Amino acid sequence: MKLLESEVTHMDTSYKIIKDIAETSDGIITTKQVEDSGLSRTVLKPYVDDGLLVKESQGIYSLSDTIADKYKLIQIRSEKAIFSYGTALYLLGMSDRVPHNIDVTVPQGYNVSRIKKDYPSIRFHYVKKELWELGITSIQSPMGATVRVYDKERCICDLIRDKKDMDMQLYTQALKEYFKAGSSMRKILKYGKKFGVEEKLRTYIEVLS
What we know:
single chain, alpha+beta, 3-stranded mixed sheet, 49% helix
């Protein structure tokens, strides 16, 4: 059925609003953002049908002529998912190994069943809420999106605490990188006390600093 001129104009205006949203949110559009802009979420389906938008998951879309940032997509799905372990080390520039499996940490009891279904390659780590909050910072992903990761000190404490489950090459590289680059002793010892690895940290500080 041929669209009336008024309908085409409306769609053009709506699409411009959607593109503006994408430009200010790392190329990703959510139904909430669309509704907050004054549009109905029903406006999205015709653009998906026409190949202008890609439906990434429930309520999340991207422009079809761009590649959506996978790190940003994961965190839009779950604001509690903080990149950690090898993934955080990569994003922080402490590892040159591109992660095949994405490591994220969430609070104990947090329901991840829906995101697990969409992203089977994610490894979830669970900690108490007070430890989950420790060391969260923001950084740019390789594609330029702002994402949340644990800082260097938190990553080192996680590695030491879970050493038996870590890849030793990644473990050794991260510790050498951290202490070689100049470390915040006060911060890392403060974290170490909370994680119960303070004495092990002091040994590494003596050997590697």
